[in-house]
C-alpha cells in the first residue's frame, strides 16, 4: 500500500503531477523506493494526460527490484572487493591448490597478480583464501598458532580455529573463507563455524569456485591426468567463464620429501 494518499487530478493535472514527481524525488534521496510504492504513485495519476507523464521505473536506479538492486550494487559499489577463485585438487597422493590473481573493485580491475595462496608449517600445509586480504592473513596467523599447539593435526587445529572464529567478538567480524590442505586431508574453513572435508577431494571457493569445481569433477576420473593438470585445466575453464577471474595463477603443492616425512611420523 502506498504511503501517499491518491491525488485528485481533475482540476490541474500538470500541477498534481509536478507535486507527485517532487515527492518521488524527495523520497528517493532518503531511501530506495520499492516497486510497489512506485506503482501506487503511478496509479494515483488518474488524469487524461497520465500517458504523457507516466513514470518510467526502468530508468530509475532506486526503483529496481530487489534482485536487480543487488546486481547493480555489486557492479557499482567501489568500496567492495570482488574476484577470487581458489581450487584444491587431490589425486593419487598429490595435492595442489591453485588461485587466480585478479582483484576487482566495482567495475575496475585493481590488481591482476595478487597471491592468494600461502605456505604454512615450512611447506607441510598449504592454503588459499577468498575474501578480505587482511582478514585472511589474520586467520592464517591464528591457524598457525593452533597448529603449533596441535602439531601434525590439521583437522583439530582447523576445528579450534573455527570455534574461535565463531565465538570471538573480534574474529566474528572477519570476512573470508579458507582452504587448507596437508599430505592427508583437505578442508574448507568458514566464519560460520564450518570445517568441511570434501567427499571427492576437490574444493572450489570464490566467485569462480563453482565453475572450477564442476570442471575439476568432470576431469578427475580421466586416466593419466595428474592433480596439477586437472587443476590448471579447471582453472582455465573458470577464468573463461567468470569475469572476476583471470589466468595469472598461483600454484602451491606439498613437496614429496615432506610427504615421506609425514608418512614416517604417522607410521611411528
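Q: What amino acid sequence fits the structure above?
A:
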Amino acid at each position: 500500500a502506498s504511503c501517499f494518499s491518491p491525488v485528485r487530478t481533475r482540476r490541474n493535472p500538470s500541477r498534481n503531477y509536478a507535486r507527485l514527481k517532487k515527492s518521488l524525488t524527495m523520497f528517493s534521496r532518503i531511501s530506495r523506493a520499492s516497486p510497489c510504492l512506485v506503482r501506487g504513485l503511478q496509479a494515483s495519476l488518474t488524469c487524461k494526460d497520465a500517458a504523457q507523464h507516466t513514470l518510467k521505473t526502468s530508468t530509475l536506479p532506486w526503483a529496481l527490484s530487489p534482485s536487480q538492486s543487488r546486481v547493480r550494487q555489486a557492479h557499482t559499489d567501489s568500496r567492495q572487493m570482488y574476484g577470487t577463485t581458489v581450487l584444491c585438487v587431490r589425486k593419487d597422493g598429490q595435492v595442489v591448490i591453485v588461485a587466480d590473481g585478479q582483484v576487482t573493485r566495482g567495475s575496475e580491475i585493481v590488481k591482476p597478480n595478487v597471491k592468494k595462496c600461502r605456505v604454512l608449517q615450512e611447506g607441510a600445509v598449504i592454503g588459499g583464501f577468498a575474501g578480505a586480504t587482511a582478514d585472511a592473513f589474520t586467520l592464517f596467523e591464528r591457524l598457525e598458532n593452533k597448529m603449533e599447539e596441535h602439531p601434525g593435526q590439521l583437522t583439530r587445529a582447523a576445528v579450534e580455529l573455527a570455534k574461535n572464529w565463531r565465538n570471538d567478538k573480534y574474529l566474528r567480524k572477519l570476512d573470508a573463507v579458507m582452504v587448507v590442505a596437508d599430505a592427508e586431508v583437505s578442508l574448507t574453513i568458514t566464519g560460520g563455524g564450518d570445517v568441511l572435508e570434501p567427499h571427492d577431494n576437490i574444493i572450489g571457493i570464490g566467485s569462480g569456485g563453482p565453475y572450477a569445481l564442476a570442471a575439476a569433477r568432470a576431469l578427475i576420473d580421466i586416466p593419466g591426468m595428474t592433480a596439477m593438470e586437472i587443476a590448471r585445466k579447471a582453472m582455465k575453464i573458470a577464468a573463461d567463464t567468470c569475469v572476476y577471474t583471470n589466468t595469472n595463477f598461483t600454484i602451491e603443492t606439498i613437496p614429496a620429501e615432506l610427504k615421506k616425512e609425514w608418512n614416517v611420523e604417522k607410521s611411528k
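Q: And what stands out in the fold?
A: Confidence is low (pLDDT under 50) at residues 46-51, 53-64, 67-81.
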